[in-house]
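Appendix B. One record, verbatim.
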Amino acid sequence: MQRLLAIVFVWFLTSSFVQAGEITDKEWNIIDNLVVTYFKGSNGMVNCTAFNEKNKPIGGGAAPALGGVARVQIDVPKKYVGKNLSVKCE
């Protein structure tokens, strides 16, 4: 039993757990798209959605994560350009 506990303990110490990604930057580009930098930690597609102050979705975009980082461009209605919008990515 102690051997099994030791093996499980070592496994927990050496395992890497999957963590959710995080938004590391948001900025507006010259053509009024919101560009979201998202750290995923692995390659693959990232989808992001921008929300207005009433938490209604107003735009979205997708981009590949290369080297674990994706830069997703989101086209939003003109009245939201330049505002600090909330964004969720997965």
